[in-house]
Batch of 2 targets.
Target 1
Amino acid sequence: MSEVTIPQPTRPWQRKRADTTRSAVSIGLVGFISFVIVLFTGFAGVDGWAVTVFLVSVLLIIIRGRKLSAKERGNAKIQLFITAAALLAFAPWISIFGSVLVKGIVGLKLNFVTSDMRTTVPDDELNMGGALHAMLGSMMMVLMATAITLPLGILSGVYLTEIKGRFTFLVRFVIQSMSGVPSIVAGLFVFTTYVSATHGPTAFGGSLALGILMLPTVARTSEEVLKLVPDDLRSASLALGARQWRTTLMVVLPTVRSGLITAAILGVARVIGETAPLLLTAGSSTAFGFNPIKGPIASLPIYVFGMLQIGTEYAVNRAWTGALVLMLAVFALFFTARKLGGKDKR
Amino acid sequence: MHVVHSRGDKVFRGIVTAGALTSLVILGLIGSFLFARGAQVFSQYGLKFITGTNWSSSMEEGIPSEFGMGPMLVGTIIVSAIALLFAVPMSIAGALYIEFYATGRVRKMLSGLLDLAAAIPSLIFGLWGIQIFTNFGQRWASFLGNRLGFVPIFNTISDNYGRSPFVAGCVLASMVVPITTSVAREVYSRTPRELIDTCYALGGSKWGAIKTVVLPFGKSGVVGGAMLGLGRALGETVAVYLVLNLNFRYTFRILESEGGNVASLIATRFGESSSEELTALVAAGFVLFLLTLSVNMVASAIVAKTTRS
């Protein structure tokens, strides 16, 4: 009897040890050669390094790829190009997050969130003055804008998912194109219709402009979450004898309550950093005013913008700190929206 | 689902329809009010308002003001074109990388980063652009200028490369990339899995599959995404205002430290304008509104068409 050999399963998809070592050696080699080149030529800075590493990698792929088939070699080259371009695309955002954090944290002292600029000039030391008035102003305008926009946005969503009347296509199309209205045009519109007809820039004017920019986001998100309501719920309610209005108000909308809050939050995140429309409609001030229809009001974006225009060292520091607070606010809103949005789907 | 409508339902449907149509009303109001306020300028200057080369407001008697937004329209197009030139290839690569090359944790991290980047306010892009990126942009611009200076558009008079349309275009590109990348990614992820697998089964490489299946499949979606990005770039105010050295005359030298766009013209001149100039600015806003609206409408039609099926 001949011996029976039991074939051992091979795992061709698993990386071999030699492969891992080889790629580690390649990376090390690229790093070393790039280091030498950067050392001996004038290529300095992050961008110089990036270009050098890229060129050396291309070279190495060509040299080491001689043994490979043409197909594999081409694949490796393309992968390198795509990775490099993708890195180039993502690099600015990482640079932005990093620089806002590093430069903004310098001025992030307690007084930044507890005092305003009434008795401080931008050139004063960073332990004086702050942006409390700007934060309150932003909050006030955003809340008013939400109060105006949220009902309209939800109505649009309800129209698109519950009523589905003959304007469905038109409404969806208008909302879509409205999201492309430049923010300065929204500001200009509110200026010509409201601000110039009344007493100049006010918080209410600012919130009108923000509302225009917010509406598309709120409407679209509302539609998305209302779509998630199962039809069984609607049918069950109708079968129990409820009319459509009761079904919508007492079954459909309560089901997606947290989703609708998400819509509002995403809308706020969309407009909280808007600067251009507020330049035209809300103006700026050094202290917080409680009357929304009288007098200009400060906001965080305008605070940052104004400080940057002044341009002296401490003023620019204040601008970075304002930007940090703004970015943290946007991220906080964004993560809250994500947490809430995940809830409805379950 | 057939529903018998009671009186309550009719009222309800009426209210909801009215609410849904407010966005249409608002959009119509924006267009008509801006047009009405700017009409005087359009009738006074006619086509010269678009093609005119000079924007000057005179405060004295006898010297007529002149409002021509030609240079700013050209500036808008130049800056946006530079932005798209960089943004589109990077977005395609970024989308392909997230969708087909990155795995596991890296992929999750990158798509989170992409969502966050789309939420960064343009003000922060502007702040970063003028304070951080200008250093790099200036170096790249001078690199280009020194080698390609004989080509007219790369020619410069001064040796000052910072705050040029090139640098502003790069900053706008980093603002456009999140939009375009997420649309491209969305479209690429809808490529039928069987088609890609067929490609592998026939012995194709990953790049082969991408080239023959994924890219052709997602072509119109990417075009739509790029146009959405273009809409944002055309109407951008603060980032351009902060980065560019604003100057309201014709310039085709993209490396020279001067330029502007329509939105930044409005933001700059607004504060100190006479009522006559204000009307002209409103008219300029109307032109910008029409421009971005039409770009955006086409873009959303394309995106809606490609992501529906």
Target 2
Amino acid sequence: MSEQIANGAVLVVGGGISGLTAALEAAEVGKDVFLIEKKPSMGGRVAQLNQYFPKLCPPSCGLEINFKRIKDNRKIRMYTMTEVKSVSGSAGSYEVTCVTSPRYVNNNCTGCDACTEVCVEERDDDFNFGMGKTKAIYRPHEMSFPMKYVLDKNACSADTLDKIKAACKYDAIDTDMEAKEFTVNVDSIIWATGWNPYDPTKLDNLKYNESNAIITNMEMERLAAPNGPTAGKILRPGDDKEPESFAFVQCAGSRDENHLEYCSYICCMASMKQITYIRERYPEAPIYVFYIDLRTPGKYEKFREKLMSDPNTHFIKGKVADIIPESDGVTVVAENAVTGEKVQQKVDMAVLATGMEPAIKSQAAGLGLDIDSNGFVVSNPATGMISAGCAKKAADVVTSAQSATAAALKAIQAGK
Amino acid sequence: MKVNPDLDFIKYMKSAGGDTLKKCYQCATCSVVCPLSTDTKPFPRKEMIWAQWGLKEKLVADPDVLLCHQCGDCTAYCPRGAKPGDVLGAIRAYMYTHYGFPSGLAKMVSSSKNLPLTIGLPALIVLVVWFISGGMHLPSSADLGQYGFGHFFGHWDFRWLAKNVFFIDIIMLPAAGLAVFSAYKGVSSMWKAMEKQHNVTAQYRPSVNQFVKEFLWPSVQEIIQHTRFRECKTNINRVKGHLPLVLSFIGLLIVTAYSAFAQDVLGLIYPSLHGPMSLMNPVKILANVSAIAMIVGIGILWANRSAMEAEEGTTATYYDWFLIYEIMAVGVTGLAAELSRLIGIPALAYFFYYLHLVSVLMLFLYMPYTKFAHLVYRTFAMAFEKYRESSFVVKSEE
């Protein structure tokens, strides 16, 4: 049996919780695994969270153990800043062309931080959704893995580049680095390409762009995270005010034919989790949750019951369909479908519970992937094209890890 | 709460363009994006669930159904494609049939299956009256030029009442009378139902004068100014069609009133007032401008509705299109009759005049049952809204 399954390598596309899990599961039974990640560091969306279900752990718990396992496993070859360019071949024998973008920092980097001290230029911090800046040479975030800096060459003047080079004692800066293309031959591909938060600017009635008091749920994660732009204080972007009241706008773009027609599954629990973040910091602040239906699967019912017993947390059945920017905060407008009256609630901060959009959606056709009408990758174990985690369907971390393990199990059989 | 759904009503809703109703999941987006919806009793979310449950008694007593102008903002933002705007249109259609008297006539007009009868009946009435009158011959070009359509139903020498006027009156007056009576009956039933549903008891009754001054006239002003219509976002273009149309109806009302007065009253003293008016006569100018405004207005509404159906997936319904075709027919036949009279082709002129009489008869006779009924029902629903907020009403503590 070992002969039959030992030769087929697996490509895992995406280094988030699903990709990490799938790569490790496949490698730990002896498969050669190529793990590629588009971003400069592993960990995906989970790394951006403050805490995650089921136990409200910080992402370091969970991700770090996986990083350790990857470091120790010689079967896994990991590539960051790398994307799939094309796929050829067929079931059991794929040739995949990958492209690695230049990081301009080589493996000599020790993370000593000498370079950032001499760098004057800054760039928008995409890890924090543009809330805050980093230097043009930066570490993606505090626990980024691999522990290597990244240089945004276009953001730097020639003078700064020279200074950075001079400051690096390890000769780690290589400004001549170019994009590198390489091919891998694998039996199967696990697509663990994850999700992007739905673009809130498409929800024109919610006016995300028109007020600093409107943030998305992922921005809330960053605000609450100790390694985030506010070091874990929940402050209103722009004026750094401590908000005295909050509104959660559920189904912002989800369950909506005009946007994402499916339920994104995680947003109800994400908002409830974020209520606990707020409660830790602002024990009395009124919180209003506007929802169509609350989806709190399984044991999360208990979690909901506990939150609903808080007299300062109000759950209103009715979707927010208009947000009016005010000089200080916003007014969210909904109809309370239980009382039949319109609610106009002025709050200091509104959180849009935006949903999950499959990240691979727009590229799927070019890569020959079978996607459903919503852009999720249809798993096809027979052809060795297997999807996992949020590339497959909207899911939480637990479900993603399960689906990644299942994907690994299918992938190791594909070479038979 | 005990719910007795009316299955026939639900079936009706499906047939009348409300087939998307079942998709609604009560998120209430519609009530918020609706520019006409109020804070204390927003719509159309509640109407959607009433309709899903088949609670027609609640719906036919709900002024909000009539306050809806089908802007389409709700439909545009609806996350489920439930098209609340179309559903409320279908409820209004149901309402007019529900309150229509006699109900047989109301039902006949409401269904496309009866279209041959709906057109055939007025066509036959006018034809039969034409035969009875004995006027049934084509005039010479000279006569047409001199008398216009004044001898369509023939001529007699009884100077106090022209034969033509007599025969037109025996067609149009009963039709208009029935329409007015039916509208009055319908509106008062609706008013009572609304009072009952909304627990409105009069503290003291407004006099007719007070009623008109405080509730009806402000509503009419709002309607003519298109105040609410202009709040619409998605289908704001409809104002461009509806406004000229309303003004043309007012213009033609003035023309008709003047011409009746001039011919039937003043004409008794000054016989020269009989026969077609000069094209330079200010009243005639108003008539022609109105006729063109009518055709242009209804043309714009026609185009808008076609566009709505093509772009936004608004359901095409008999209820909506019947009125568009009917008004277009009135305008086009009227203008065609006038033009062929001016050119001097008697056969063509009489043919179009006949069609014009038929279409005008249809407009009058079917007013309370077709979409045209919004003219009275919406006006009174708006008046009701003002009335229930007024000091005439006992304020109940709900």
